């Protein structure tokens, strides 16, 4: 997208929000946004932004001044998130972008939306099924998959047409979570049988049930390659495989919390998040896990609210995010040793995080909302 249009639209959204009456506690929220509009209009300001190269700077300033419901209140200057609304109030469960402009969001009641404008505008798209949509991934601009209910959908033309196959999942319960390493190979967690995985190696044409012998319900999974994978479970347990799921080993972390997401940046370093603001890390391939944050530790540091972290992703070995209930985002720039708090007002649950690169990341949230990382600290 033309950068002038990008800055212009972002400026318009932020200006309209900051023109609302300032809420209490907003000392220093100057009336500058109204003033800027009054001296020449959005288009003049947008042109100045573009030609002077001040887009990132002014965007950051406007976010700092804005305390409306469309912006995060942040203790991490440099990381700003822009609210992107759709015309639905259904919850989004997942979001995926194939490039900075083109992405999809999926959710409850067959919510299926596409954007070609970095998420500034979203348009409802149609599907040949009516399911609770849980997982979407594109492997290139043409080939992608979508899972919901007991259905596996695939496309070879960028989502213009979807082919439908069934999975062994019971319709009543449906997909809980999934991870696909490539267009052929993937694993799915069944909501009904939470201690089993089902695997396909032929793009959903057939499925094999994998028994892990871990007697704790699975919540989420991540595969570093087509052999090495992790599943996070209840009560502090994980499951690990090094042969594509033929055999699984149970791992007890000694952190008795329900886990919700796992992510590895390389073969040795990974993170798990879950209930009560729990973040744990391994640097030795999962042999040992160290708590970085828990509810008890947070209480000792002055935090009083309990929050369920629902996803974690890292761009590289230093930069990562975790998100969850109460609109919470934690971000780190030192490999997870320290986490700074970003928060969104007015929305209760952030469900899934997708990171494309250092300047492009999105969050799927409840009530038909997507958040985009608008400006990243250098």
Write the layout of secondary structure elements.
Layout: H1 3-18, H2 32-38, H3 41-52, H4 55-65, E1 72-74, E2 80-85, E3 92-97, E4 103-107, E5 112-115, E6 123-124, E7 133-138, E8 144-148, E9 151-155, E10 163-166, E11 175-180, E12 186-190, E13 196-200, E14 208-211, E15 218-223, E16 229-233, E17 237-241, E18 249-252, E19 259-264, E20 270-274, E21 278-282, E22 290-293, H5 295-300, E23 309-314, E24 320-324, E25 328-332, E26 340-344, E27 350-357, E28 360-365, E29 369-375
Antiparallel strand pairs: 1-26, 2-29, 3-4, 4-5, 5-6, 7-8, 8-9, 9-10, 11-12, 12-13, 13-14, 15-16, 16-17, 17-18, 19-20, 20-21, 21-22, 23-24, 24-25, 25-26, 27-28, 28-29
Helix pairs in contact: 1-3, 1-4
Highlighted features:
Methylamine Dehydrogenase, Chain H; single chain; globular; five-stranded antiparallel β-sheet; disordered N terminus; 2 domains; mainly beta; 378 residues; four-stranded antiparallel β-sheet
Description:
With 378 residues, this protein is mainly β. The protein has 2 domains: 3-68, no CATH class; 80-375, YVTN repeat-like/Quinoprotein amine dehydrogenase (Methylamine Dehydrogenase, Chain H), CATH 2.130.10.10. It is built from 5 helices and 29 strands. The protein has helices spanning 3-18, 32-38, 41-52, 55-65, 295-300, and strands at residues 72-74, 80-85, 92-97, 103-107, 112-115, 123-124, 133-138, 144-148, 151-155, 163-166, 175-180, 186-190, 196-200, 208-211, 218-223, 229-233, 237-241, 249-252, 259-264, 270-274, 278-282, 290-293, 309-314, 320-324, 328-332, 340-344, 350-357, 360-365, 369-375. It has a 5-stranded antiparallel beta sheet with strand order 1-26-25-24-23, with no helix packed on it. The chain has a 4-stranded antiparallel beta sheet with strand order 2-29-28-27. A hairpin with a 7-residue loop joins strand 17 and strand 18. Residues 1-76 have low confidence and may be disordered.
């Amino acid at each position: 997208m033309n950068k002038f249009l990008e800055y212009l639209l972002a400026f318009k959204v932020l200006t309209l929000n900051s023109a609302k009456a300032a809420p209490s506690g907003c000392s220093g929220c100057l009336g500058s946004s109204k003033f800027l509009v009054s001296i020449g209009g959005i288009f003049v300001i947008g042109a100045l932004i573009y030609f002077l190269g001040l887009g990132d700077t002014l965007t950051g300033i406007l976010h700092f001044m804005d305390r409306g419901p469309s912006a995060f209140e942040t203790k991490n200057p440099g990381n700003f998130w822009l609210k992107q609304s759709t015309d639905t109030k259904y919850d989004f469960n997942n979001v995926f972008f194939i490039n900075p402009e083109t992405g999809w969001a999926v959710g409850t009641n067959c919510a299926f939306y596409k954007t070609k404008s970095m998420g500034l505008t979203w348009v409802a798209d149609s599907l040949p099924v009516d399911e609770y949509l849980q997982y979407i991934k594109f492997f290139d601009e043409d080939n992608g998959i979508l899972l919901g209910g007991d259905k596996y959908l695939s496309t070879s033309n960028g989502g213009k047409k979807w082919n439908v196959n069934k999975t062994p999942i019971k319709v009543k319960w449906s997909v809980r979570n999934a991870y696909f390493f490539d267009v052929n190979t993937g694993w799915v967690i069944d909501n009904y049988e939470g201690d089993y995985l089902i695997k396909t190696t032929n793009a959903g044409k057939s499925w094999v049930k994998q028994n892990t012998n871990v007697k704790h319900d699975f919540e989420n999974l991540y595969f570093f390659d087509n052999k090495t994978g992790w599943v996070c479970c209840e009560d502090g347990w994980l499951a690990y495989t090094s042969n594509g799921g033929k055999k699984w080993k149970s791992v007890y972390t000694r952190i008795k919390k329900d886990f919700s997401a796992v992510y590895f940046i390389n073969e040795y370093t990974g993170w798990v998040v879950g209930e009560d603001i729990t973040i744990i890390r391994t640097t030795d391939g999962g042999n040992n896990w160290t708590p970085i944050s828990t509810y008890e530790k947070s209480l000792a540091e002055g935090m009083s609210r309990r929050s369920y972290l629902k996803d974690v992703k890292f761009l590289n070995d230093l930069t990562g995010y975790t998100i969850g209930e109460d609109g919470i985002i934690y971000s780190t720039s030192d490999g997870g040793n320290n986490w700074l708090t970003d928060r969104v007002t007015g929305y209760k649950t952030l469900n899934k995080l997708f990171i494309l690169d250092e300047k492009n990341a999105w969050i799927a949230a409840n009530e038909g909302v997507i958040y985009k990382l608008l400006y990243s600290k250098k």
